Amino acid sequence: MRHPTRDVGLLLLTAVLAIAATLAWRQWTSPAIASAETQLQSRQRLAVLPAGSYDNQPLDRPLPRPAAQRPNSRILAAYRATLAGKPSAIILVTQTPGYSGPIVLSVAIANDGRLIGSQVVEQQESPGLGARLGDPQLKWLGQFANHQLGDHWALKRDQGDFDQLAGATVTSRAVITALQEALGYFDEQRSVLLEGSAHE
Whole-model pTM? Predict the structure, then answer.
């Protein structure tokens, strides 16, 4: 006949060993996971810059963010890309409310205020609809390249210059507004972003 106390003790020992193994595994893998996430985020932020357009490590030295923010979006970070010691582009990381949650974009802007490119860093939009905004095969974000602040930043259905992401009007408008406001932020803060400040 089995002793109930022995069974309980065995169950407790098994539970303790399982918890210890789980904690040890988490402790061992957490740094690797965090490092992989950081590398992915860095690649996403820098993917907006053409190869050969910079020779520094822009993300290593974030720029100070002036207090001025946008009506519909928020600048989270700013970085300066340089080539041969001279500014070649500014990367702005901006967040805007989407249909299902915040959309975070990395936006590269040339010295003359032209949008070089944009990339989705985070989004929670509806699968198959708004979530397709970062789909590399769809290339929806590609239509904004080479546009400037003075262009018509609206959907064609709203008398603007841009196509809508099919089935995702709210997402499309949110991204267009965020890109326009990023260009406006750059325009207002151009000297600080390109020339630097005493805080660097």
Answer: 0.77
